[in-house]
Amino acid sequence: HVQLVESGGDSVQAGSSLRLSCKYSGWHYTGYCMAWFRQIPGKERVRVAAITTGSGATDYADSVKGRFTISHDAAVNTLWLEMNNLQPEDTGIYYCAAVNWAWLRFPRTDEFQHWGQGTQVTVS
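Now predict its structure.
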């Protein structure tokens, strides 16, 4: 049974930094993709950043390039999202997601198999 548990969300001022963590368990995949999504009420989840564990390739939404960094350490079963220079538009619930993945392209949102419960980030 795969579980993803996010933490690190907070209410902060614009210009601040936060580091989100996603601890996962029940994993048996050798190749996979993990990602962070953001969702605000009434809107679809938007992928913020993704990483493939095989090649280490990363992908970022244009709005966060240069400010956010996704990283992963399989030895401690943890995914992180380092967020710098946070802006009010970064506000939302951040979800960690994962999928068994061996393709070169990054997965669509509907292709992610496992999701965490989310952690709230509020920037004012």
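The chain has no helices and eleven strands.
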